Amino acid sequence: MNKYLEQLIELSKLDKEIDDFGPRIAKVEKMLKLSLDKERDLKLQAESFQADIADAKLKKAKNEAHLAELSSKLKDLTKKSALVKTAKEIKALQLEEEISKEQCDFANDEINRLDKIIDLKQTNISGLQEKIAEAVKEAEEIKASIDSQIQAIEEERRNVYQSKDELVVQMSQKILTFYQKIRKWAENTTVVPVKKQACYGCFMRMNDKTYASVLKQDDIVTCPHCGRILYKEIAEEAQA
Q: Which PANTHER family does this entry report, sorted A to Z (predicted)?
């Protein structure tokens, strides 16, 4: 195989490895993000329940204050009833007393309802606190694992970059410029194999003359359709 072609194949493989590091790290970091999102959502739920409890306690306090006022009013009505003399006054006091008692019943019912809400929300918060503790532990474990994985990936990336630097030093500047020019648009399909007499970059079938040149591998051959650099697969070589 042509020396320059071997270098180009190796360089394209190294560039592909380098480009793959970003998605690999992003995939690993996504695991931690999902765990932290879960922890955040649980905490937001707990904060929402706390706000509901605070609101319910405020409404309960208002109803209790209103109930105290009604109780005081009923006592005053009882005192007044002993002093009134006419039937009209008695009837007016009785009506006012009935309204006050209905308001007392409503206030008591509302206080009971709010107590149930407070108890339910507190129970929900207790359950969430357990889940939050589990989520925090899970996030810490994932972070420790991710730190280890990223460290390994970064070490691997340094080695690949070193291999690429060593290879580039050995390459002809003219060949390297030619490769980089194609890579600007072809990216990781700059150097592609030929399978079944077709370019595996554009998947177009090539003529017999070009195919024969690829099989010989004496020179650098580009696809007549897309311009990518071509090389033969081992299977193609065996068939030839």
A: PHOSPHOLIPASE C-BETA-2-RELATED, SCAVENGER RECEPTOR CLASS A MEMBER 3
